[in-house]
Design a protein that fits this description.
The protein is of the alpha/beta class. Helix content is 40%, strand content 21%.
């Protein structure tokens, strides 16, 4: 791996996977100003995604859908610089983020970095709720996606991780329709992933998972500080865990 003394130690390859991301892509790509390249791997967009990407000089690569983890692993393999920065097509960095990142990498190059994410919901920030952090920045040679993951894909890194004080604006939960559709799709993938690992339907989990996750999200993750929006989102998020169990039961029931 190139070290901080190498010529390209603070050159950054930003990479994204896309499919019909025109709604927010312009804001996403504008927030990457200062990145040394933008690699955009598209799986068949039919909207203005590719036109927008071309305007921002992204290197567009066409790749039929492989699954979340495999698609991101492929995109990472197309990056040419030492440092890789991954964003989704609905995630926006704050102004000046790339300059801050490069300064950080010059000072502390032997880490990987996670960012906190503010999930916009119903057109407004959820900033009063607890923000999760996501690993987004790492040396390319020190990172590997777990390609067996079907959903909530994870990347393994060989360096310690720090949280960089930058907050990503995330539009992927911006309406009840968007988040409910995603959670329905993700619960199917999660059930498939559990079955592949030999984990089957649990009656106890089916009974307790919704109330436990709702209480955890609403109180421990402070969704209650976001008013009615927090109550609605906590129910939808908890419903994802219930749906996963329901689909495991459905598989068992239909297999009889």
């Amino acid at each position: 791996m190139t070290t901080a003394n190498g010529n390209d130690a603070v050159k950054i390859s930003a990479y994204l996977i896309t499919l019909n991301e025109e709604a927010h892509l312009e804001e996403v790509l504008a927030s990457l100003a200062g990145a040394d390249e933008i690699v955009l791997v598209d799986s068949g967009s039919t909207d203005r995604t590719l036109d927008i990407a071309a305007r921002y000089d992204a290197r567009i690569i066409h790749q039929p859908w492989l699954g979340f983890a495999k698609q991101k692993a492929f995109a990472l393999s197309q990056c040419q610089y030492t440092w890789a920065l991954n964003l989704d097509g609905d995630e926006v960095l704050p102004p000046g983020a790339i300059a801050t990142i490069k300064e950080t990498l010059q000072q502390a190059p032997n880490f990987c970095y996670a960012f906190r994410r503010d999930d916009y919901f119903m057109g407004a920030s959820m900033r009063f709720a607890k923000m999760k952090h996501f690993l987004k920045l790492y040396p390319r040679e020190a990172a590997k996606w777990r390609e067996s993951d079907l959903v909530h894909e994870h990347i393994d890194v060989s360096l310690p991780v720090k949280i960089l004080p930058l907050i990503i604006k995330h539009y992927g939960h911006d309406s009840t329709e968007i988040i409910a559709a995603k959670k329905n799709r993700y619960s199917t993938l999660k059930a498939q992933q559990r079955l592949a690992k030999g984990r089957h339907f649990s009656p106890l989990r089916m009974l307790v998972i919704f109330p436990i996750m709702f209480l955890k999200l609403y109180f421990l993750h402070r969704f209650f500080l976001c008013g009615w929006r927090g109550l609605i989102k906590a129910n939808i998020e908890a419903g994802y865990f219930f749906l996963t169990e329901a689909k495991l039961f459905e598989h068992k029931f239909k297999s009889k």
